[in-house]
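ok posting inputs for the glycine job
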Amino acid sequence: MRVLVIGSGGREHVISYKLSLSPRVTKLYCAPGNGGIASIAECVPIKATDIDQIVAFAKSESIDLVFVAPEDPLALGLVDRLREAQIRVFGPTAAAALIEASKAYSKDLMKRYNIPTARYEIFDSESKALAYLESQSMPIVIKADGLALGKGVIIAQTLDEAKEAVHSMFSEKKFGQAGDVVVIEECLNGPELTILAFADGETAIPMVSSRDHKRALDNDLGKNTGGMGAITPGADLSEEDELFINEKIIDATILALKQEGRPFEGVIYFGLMLTPEGPKVIEYNARFGDPEAQAILPRLRNDLLDIVDACIDHRLSEVVLDFKPGASCCVVMASGGYPDAYETGYEIFGIEESGCLVFQAGTKLVSGRPVTSGGRVLCVYAESENLDDAIEKSYESVQKIHFNNAHYRTDIGRTGK
Ligand code: AMP
Ligand code: GLY
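and the output
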């Protein structure tokens, strides 16, 4: 089969890696790919958001399957366009991807179908939002409605901070159009947990749980990032919580989307918080998380292509997911300064010598050598029978990899959030 993966990060590297292990994949392309993906797939210089060019490429190269990994092309309707062109594709339609592309839509969906989430109000004007804040207790959470690379959420500790956040979204257009509508919600407490599930519109099967570490610095300090590292499993869930999450969150969401006429096919992401009142949904995403995918997929024993086929053909209920027992950890090495301004163009040393799986994100090849080209640069993976061991192994490998101004957290897997 001739397969095309869309995207250019560490997530797309691990997806390409897993697909490259499938005996049924005869040719693998990635658009646009990166320096690491180039070693397992042919990288095609088409942007993930260039819908017309992707459709044209898939047609001209007789692609048998397109795997759309990032949120932007999903929200832009790449899956719909490929389906119209009769090209087989894995990922949700734009209608189903709205659970990620609009926080207002996802909150209203949860309310309509009784799916547990933080209390909230939605605003389309600054003055109404400011007036509402006056009556609320702090801390409080302010969220831009649209896609903002994981950065559109502000947890305000004081009324002044909350007002400033609202002002920055409406008047200063800090997140562009994504902030034209703002969700203000109750601040929840508890450990966070990510559950990813494959879905075929009717059935969803969860993968091993994971935990992302979103803040840039140790001890969950610094700004929110796309994710600085992840572990699996993400928590030691009680049977009761597991059942609750499966029924009241995962199955309830899949059923809700089906009833709304937006059946979800692809990978659905549940960002959860384990609050004292039970698990609640913090956010949905319409795709694999990054770096959660890098921590989960190497543990998956199934052929990823078999699962993708089952989702597309609506026979996921026949699939049994098989994960290697134990635990995994991946540590993101980023360019110093990320998620704010950072420098790129630095040569990376030690990837091959590190002795583990390294998924590349912001890298490119210059004269055959990997060079930094983005904020999150590498994701260093290790697995073991237990989590402590997996964490230790991944940090041992991190020590062997070098580039100028490299920044990584030293507490992945060791902090509660
Ligand atoms: P989101 O992009 O919605 O996942 O939010 C990013 C991060 O902000 C989450 O991973 C949480 O750490 C935090 N967050 C979002 N919503 C809430 C909330 N209602 N209460 C507490 N923390 C939150
Ligand atoms: N790691 C969080 C995300 O992919 O949205």
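notes: The two ends are 41 Å apart (CA to CA). The longest strand covers residues 265-275.
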